[in-house]
Structure formats: C-alpha cells, structure tokens
Design goal:
about 950 residues, Beta Polymerase, domain 2, 4-stranded mixed sheet, globular
C-alpha cells in the first residue's frame, strides 16, 4: 500500500518538521541541554497532532492495520529526525556509522497508540564514545516524550550470539526492520541471522513459540470466549496471529503472510480471513488505546459500548449494539483458532517429511499410523485421530460426525490435519445430513457419553460442526450477554454446563455437589437431561423470553434427534423452567410455606424435581469462576428437601405448639452445666420462630454467648464462626433491639466491605436482638478469615454504640472506588405482591448494585412503619434483586392501594439516588430499645 493511500502527508509534513528541528540544533550550536529543551515542545506537538490525524483517519476508514502502520510511520519520522540531529548536529558524527532498527511489534511496521517502542542500535565493532552519547541523547528525549522504550545497543556479532541463546531475543531480531542510519549493518544482521540462527532450527523455534502461546492461554483462562477478552494476549487475539506469522516467517522464510498462499499453506479464502482478523483486532486495539489514553489491552465492559458505537453497530431485536459487536469479536477469535490449526497441520506434515536418514526411518516406523478397531475411515497417529485418506468426507459426509464419535470412544485427541479437513468440509453438513437418522444417533451418543462429552462438543464447536448440525445452536455461537454475571459467551456456557453434568454423572463432584450427585443415579432419563442442559439457553438473543422460545426450539429439534414425544415434552419443560429453582431458592423465603407449595405445584413430580435440581447446579456452575458457592448449594438443597417432603406426603402433622414445647425441652436438656433455674429462665427468653428454626447445636452456642456477655456486663457483643464448605462466615450480634437495627447492621457490614449472604434475626423476650449475619467468605485460610470477621464485628459494634457514624464510614469506603457496573443500565423496578405469601406482603426491587443499598432500603421500610419479617438479597453481576417479606406494625398484610403506592414511590426514590451518598436519615447509633417479635431474615449470596 502506498504512502499516498495511507494518507501520510496529512499526518506530518516531514520536510518542514526536519527543517525546524535542524534549525534548532544549528541555532543552539551543539548545546545538548538547550537543544533537548527546545526540541521537546516541537516533538510533542508533532506527535500530538500526528496521532490525532491518525485517529481521525481511523474514524473515517475504520482500518485498524492502516492505523497501526500510520502510527509506525509517524514514529519512524520522529526517530529519523532525532537520529540525524543527535549524530550529525550535536556530536558531529556521520549518520551512516550506526544503524537504528525497529524490532518486535514495531519491527513489523505496526504500532498501537499505547505500544512500547522496541529499538535496536546496531554498532560496528569499533565505535567512538560520542556515538554512545548520541544514543543516550535520543533515548532521554524519547523518555521525556513519555514513550516506553525497550532498547539494546549491540554489534551484529552480539545479536547473533544472543539470538542463539535467548528465544525472546531471537524473536525480536526475526522482525528487525531498518529505520535509519547505516542500512548495510541491518542487512548484514538479517543475512547472518538466517544463515547462522534460523537454518535448521525451525522445529526448536516452533515448539518454543507454541509452548509460549499455551502458557499465555492458560494464564488468560484458556478460552477465547471470556466476555472481557484480552485483545492482545488472549486466546484468539493479536498475539496468536503474530505467533503464526513468526512461525511462518521462521519456517518458510516469508516477509509477508500473503506468501503463504503461494506456498500452499493457506487457501486464498483463509488468507482473507487472516487479513480481516488482523485488521479487525488492530482496529479494536487502537480504539481501546485512544479511548482510555493508555495501553489498555482488556476489552472491558465500560469501553465495549463506546467501541461498538465507533464501529457503527446498531441495536437489533433481541441483541444490543454492544452484544452484536462482541459477537463479531468472538467470531474473529474463532477464525484465528481455525488458522492456527491449519498452519500447525501444515507445519507438522512438512516436519515429518523433512526427517531423513536412519533416525528418520526409525521415527517414522515407531510413530506410523495405526488402524482403529471398528473403522476403516480413521487411523490413530501418535494418540490422535486422523483421516485414512483425504476423500473420506467427500465419499460419506456422515463421517464428519463419526470422526468425533470415534475420537470419544477411543479417547483420542484430534490431528490438526483432520480438523483442517473438517473446517474445509462444513458445506457438506446440509439438510440431508441434519435429518440423517445415523447422524442424529451418533450425536446423541456423543452428548451422553460416559467419557468427556464437553471436550468433544467443544472441538465440534471450534471446527464449526456444532453450529452447522444444530442451526439453532449456531445462532448463539460467539454470542455474549452484556452483563457482569455471565463470564462466557452463550455457546461456551452451554458446553461448560455439559461438562459439569458429566462430572456429576461420573460421581466426580460428590464433595462439591453432594445432593446432585446423590440423585443423579436415580434419574432414568439421562438423554433428556443432557439434551436440556445443552439447549437450555439456545434461544438467547431473541425478542421472546429465552426460556419460552427455547422450549419451542426443543419441541422442534428433539424429534429430529430421535427423542420420543414424552422425552421431547420433558426437555421442553426443563428448558422453559430452567431458571425457576434458582430464582425461588435465591429470591424467596424458604421458611414461608406458600413458597414451597407454589414451587411444588409447578414441579409436580419427584423426577422433574431431581432433573431441575441437577440442571440448575450445572447452569450456575457454568456461569463463571466464583459464581457458584457453598451457600447457593445449601439454598438449593433446602428447597429440594422441603419440596420433596411435600411431594411425597406433606409437612409434619404435629402442631406448632407441640413442636415448640419439644424444642424447649431439648434445649433445656442440652444445657448440662446450667442450674435448673438458669435453664428455665433462659428457655423463656426465646420465641417459637427461634426454637423451631435454629439448630440445637447453634442454640447451645448462643446460650453460652449470651451467658458470657451477661456476666461481663456487655450490652453489645459479637461472636465469629467460619464455615468453609458453605464458603460463609458467621457473625452473631447481641444488642438492644431497635426498629432500625437491621438497617444499621447491614450498613455496618457494607462499611466493612462485607457481602451479606444471609441473616437470622430474632428478638428475645427481654428486648434484645440476637442476629446472626452470614457474609461471603473472602480468605481460604481460617485464621485470615477469622481476623477479617473480627474486623467486621468491631465495625458493627462501633456503629451500634455510636462510636462511628454510618454515613461517614460508607462514604469513606466508597471514596476513590471506580464503579465496575457504571457501563450497565438496569431500569429500577419495584414490584409488590400479596399473592406470594399467605401472611406477608412481598416487596421485590431490582436495580444496579451499590455499596449501602440494603441499608438504605431497609431504612425506608422502617420509616414507612413496615416490619421486615424476612428478606432475600441476590446479586447477579451488576444487578441486585432484593425481596422483603413485610407486614404492618400489627402483623397484617399491606392492602391499601394508597399505602402501596407510597411504598413504591419511596423505594423508587431511593433507587434513583446517587450511590456515593448515604442518606442523612440513617441513624449512627442506638436509640431507645423497642421489643419486636422474632423474625428470620434470609439473604442470598452475591455472585
């Protein structure tokens, strides 16, 4: 591409720039400090104006690779001018004495706005001290200008020697490019590098680069489908393309990747994919650097919408502009993976042919392909499945599906050549292929395999087979959901869900999922469950609710796969209700009988309950790292057991009064070292909700806690216990009761950085509150976690005692913190229902999460004279769903339409307020104690 086409003349007037800099050096007559000071503003202006011109060109033509080349060209001009001024004007030397070469990424003639500048100053064997000073002058000016410069000053001989010893230096020299000075030195380096370093060492270099790539992928999460991908270092990013070019350049001695087409390594279509991927990724990276003003390589949520707008993406039904842009990104990342497989296949084939002599014959004999029992279409090549001949798929397209099935049955990896053949044969997966009874039977065998179905499905997806065979699945390939909850694209999430199901099915998850592992063997319809797990989110991105639309997809697709009408309806029901158990467990009071009866009415049978439990576990586990925790497991187990009890015969027939009396007797008997009078007095402190809800073990612990506090004369006291399996830390608070107590405690937890997972709140008959707050565990080590819990407990005591003011401590915690969810928009909503509970009015709010939100909402409910009987606090990424079970002060539901409207309005006002200001109405300490009835407050862990 010519300079005129790239618009270099609009970036910098080179002649005028050189003349101005030269004039400064002449006028100041070699005074280094004065010249440096005088040049600095001129250079800064040229860089600022030039980079802004390049930015505007990017906005106009959208070409990322041209943007990177323009920036590289601008850098070349700056360096050439500095080089000439330093050597000839300041130190009186000849510019053809030393050579300046660009290496690394800059050596390819591409730069992002925030890229480092990698330079190599090539010196002849003998050089004057002034030339070293000239190099220092150049470097100091570059640093003054704010550039990050990677540099080396070496002779050609040193470069050759170090390249042999260090793979990083070898890679840098591989891409060395002459910028200015003595060009012959650079030419000598490249010639000697090819002859003395590259020759005969391609296998060593390729192995090192692929190992580097694998380690880089491992650190980045080993998936190209992270919803905040690293554009440079992530899987399917620019570094992967650069690695391919390094390998191709080293192995095939090409200067341009297009030459790989002439060599037969890539087809013309594949080369166009290479170009498009390179250009797109460069455009994304350049926009990121320009937007953030720094070398930001992670495509984070807060800049994704702006870049989508710069690429001119528009909203479409079911998908926002940013989701459409990110789908494009992941499809490009997938193309990079395809190109990697293709080039690796060619490299391996050529390497095998290159092995000669006796050693080569021995290697070929030892590693010769072997027949695979039961198939004539495929062979085993060093633990990998390969094609017996190139025309296998041409003769019988169904063999594409068999390839993956045979690999699964024989626990074989895939030969790159086989996957390349699959990628190039995707058009053979047509309607006749999809309707083939054999193809569908094989697919179900893969899906329900006792081996590693997720691995095979992932290989099918990466090769493009899954989306071609299941067009409904193809629509969600590379689709992301723009929120902080989901960590992966939809297709990756579904495949990971199957991986979790397989883990449970093989009894490899008993410790993490004891109940799911226990019920799995009794599930007779494995095929139904595996199909539902694979398809549960297949209708994402549509205008219709994805659960409802997904059920319709299942009714259409399952008969084709070979499922019976009964199985099809069961799959459809599971998909339609796949969020039900999760939402009930996390947003409803499981101690409220109507919660269980309503859920049981929807589930209807134990078989459905079992399958829905396992599907729910798989779905949550596959969302992303850290989303699943033991407390979510406990909530699901509680919901399961309560519903199982109802479906198999109902709740206990023993009256509440009788059960309370029995609990009092058990507690009294458990206090073995207490006098009879102490036992009697203590048992009278507790109301029925406490005695019927809290385990006897915890009741005894509480008794000792209260006894010790009373002996010490402490009105306020806290106690800490950790639960490693549930990933929960328990903080028990004893304090004088108060209408705003819940608001104060939750606010104190927010101020201490604690994320509330659950709480049990009870009142004793002598007017004290016994509240147990459960917060998400932060440290793996118990000692560290107990210290953290102690800090939270002291914060609660300080706030309750009035030693610290809640608004101030929350404001201090919020100060300077960047809101991670600022890129998201969640329309605040308040829903009030009198039909979800027989005894209480249920208030549900949905909004963006923020520090102190729970404290503010509970304060408002207290202001409105509403008694909170229980609450569930659930966070899905940036969104929070809080549910409060309330009554008026005499224990009745709130039924007045005017009052309900007032509650809705007051809560909406809180949700709309700025999250960095805590309401002044929040109390800073205790007021007069007021007795309250015992209540249980349940709060769900924030994901």
């Amino acid at each position: 591409m010519s300079k005129l086409e790239l618009g270099y003349g609009d970036i910098l007037d080179v002649a005028a720039f050189n003349a101005e800099c030269d004039a400064i050096a002449l006028r100041l007559n070699g005074n280094q400090l004065q010249i440096r000071a005088a040049l600095l503003p001129v250079l800064k202006a040229a860089i600022t104006d030039g980079r802004e011109a390049v930015r505007q060109m990017l906005y106009v033509d959208g070409s990322g690779i041209d943007c990177a080349r323009r920036l590289s060209w601008l850098q070349d001009q700056l360096l050439a001018t500095l080089f000439n001024v330093a050597i000839s004007r300041i130190f009186g030397g000849k510019v053809d004495t030393v050579a300046l070469a660009a290496v690394g990424g800059y050596g390819r003639g591409t730069l992002a706005p925030g890229s480092d500048i990698d330079l190599l100053f090539l010196m002849p064997p003998k050089i004057s001290q002034d030339m070293h000073k000239a190099v220092e002058f150049i470097l100091y000016l570059l640093w003054d200008l704010g550039f990050k410069v990677g540099h080396a000053t070496r002779t050609v001989e040193e470069c050759i020697r170090l390249s042999k010893e260090d793979m990083t230096i070898r890679t840098a020299v591989l891409e060395a490019r002459f910028v200015c000075g003595r060009e012959a030195l650079v030419e000598e380096l490249l010639q000697r590098f090819d002859a003395e370093v590259v020759e005969g060492t391609a296998p060593e270099f390729i192995a090192a680069k692929l190992a580097e790539r694998n380690e880089r992928h491992r650190k980045a999460g080993d998936t190209r489908y992270l919803v905040e991908p690293n554009v440079k270092e992530g899987k399917g990013g620019l570094r992967d393309l650069q690695t391919l070019f390094w390998i191709a350049k080293y192995k095939f001695h090409v200067r341009d990747a297009e030459e790989l087409v002439k060599l037969g390594v890539l087809s013309r279509h594949e080369w166009r994919l290479f170009e498009k991927a390179d250009d797109f990724l460069w455009a994304v990276r350049c926009h990121m650097h320009y937007l953030t003003g720094k070398p930001e390589e992670r495509l984070s949520f807060d800049i994704q919408p702006e870049i989508a707008q710069l690429f001119d993406y528009q909203d479409r039904p079911g998908l926002s502009a940013v989701e459409r842009f990110m789908k494009h990104y992941f499809l490009v990342a997938k193309d990079v993976g395809d190109l990697t497989r293709i080039i690796c296949s060619v490299l391996e084939e050529q390497q095998a042919k290159a092995t000669t002599g006796l050693s080569g014959a021995i290697v070929r004999f030892t590693n010769r392909p072997r027949k695979i029992s039961g198939t004539a279409e495929f062979i085993e090549d060093r633990g990998r499945i390969a094609l017996a001949d190139p025309d296998v798929f041409k003769r019988d397209p169904i063999s594409i599906m068999r390839l993956f099935h045979v690999a699964d049955l024989n626990d074989l990896e895939f030969h790159p050549d086989a996957l390349k053949a699959v990628t190039r044969s995707l058009k053979r997966i047509d309607q006749a292929f999809r309707e083939s009874e054999e193809a569908n039977r094989i697919f179900l065998s893969i899906l329900t395999s006792r081996g590693d179905p997720a691995l095979i499905l992932r290989r099918m997806n990466e090769a493009g087979v899954l989306g071609r065979f299941l067009p409904e699945f193809g629509k969600i390939v590379s689709m992301m959901q723009f929120n902080m909850y989901h960590h992966y694209t939809v297709d990756e999430h579904l495949i990971r869900s199957v991986a979790v199901l397989s883990e449970i099915d093989k009894q490899e998850a008993e410790e993490l999922h004891p109940l799911a592992s226990k019920v799995m063997p009794s599930i007779e319809e494995r095929t139904v469950l595996y199909t539902a797990v694979l398809l549960h989110d297949v209708a994402k991105g549509r205008q219709e609710d994805h659960s409802v639309a997904g059920a319709k997809v299942a009714r259409k697709l399952c008969p084709r796969l070979g499922l019976t009408p009964k199985q099809t309806e069961l799959v459809a029901w599971l998909i339609d209700q796949h969020l039900l158990m999760s939402m009930v467990a996390q947003t409803r009071d499981l101690n409220d009988r109507k919660t269980i009866t309503d859920f049981a009415e929807k589930v209807q049978t134990l078989d459905r309950l079992k399958m829905l439990l396992v599907l729910t576990v798989c779905d949550i586990r596959a969302v992303g790292p850290g989303v699943w925790n033991g407390w979510k497991g406990q909530l699901l187990r509680t919901l399961y057991y309560e519903t199982e009890l109802l479906l198999s015969g109902g709740f206990s027939e023993v009256s509440r009064k009788e059960r309370t009396q029995h609990a009092e007797i058990l507690l009294a008997e458990a206090l073995t070292d207490w006098s009879e009078a102490e036992r009697a007095d203590y048992v009278k402190l507790h109301y029925p909700p406490y005695l019927l809800t809290v385990t006897l073990e915890d009741q005894v612990r509480h008794a000792e806690f209260i006894r010790q506090a009373d002996k010490a004369g402490h009105a306020l006291a806290t106690m800490v216990r950790t639960h490693s399996f549930h990933a929960i830390t328990e903080i028990t608070v004893l304090a004088p009761d108060h209408p705003r107590l819940l608001s104060i405690i939750t606010g104190a937890c927010a101020a201490a950085g604690a994320n509330i997972a659950d709480a049990q709140v009870f009142t004793t008959s002598d007017g004290r509150a016994l509240d147990t707050i459960l917060v998400n565990r932060e440290f793996a080590d118990d000692a560290d976690e107990k210290r953290r819990a102690g800090t939270i407990g002291r914060m609660i005591e300080d706030v309750l005692a009035g030693r610290k003011r809640l608004p101030e401590v929350i404001a201090a915690r919020s100060k300077g913190k960047t809101r991670k969810n600022k890129a998201f928009a969640v329309v605040p909503s308040v829903t009030i229902s009198n039909g979800l509970s027989n005894k209480f009015t249920v208030i549900e709010i949905e909004c963006l999460d923020r520090i102190g939100l729970l404290a503010e909402v509970t304060a408002v409910l207290s202001d409105l004279s509403l008694d909170i009987h229980s609450a569930r606090i659930t966070t899905f990424g940036e969104k929070v769903i809080d549910t409060f079970y309330v009554s008026d002060l005499i224990g009745h539901k709130v039924t007045s339409e005017n009052r309900l409207a007032m509650v809705t309005g007051r809560i909406k006002a809180v949700l709309a307020e700025q999250d960095d200001e805590l309401r002044d109405r929040m109390p800073s300490g205790m007021i007069a104690p007021a007795p309250r009835r015992g209540v249980v407050v349940k709060r769900k862990a924030r994901a």
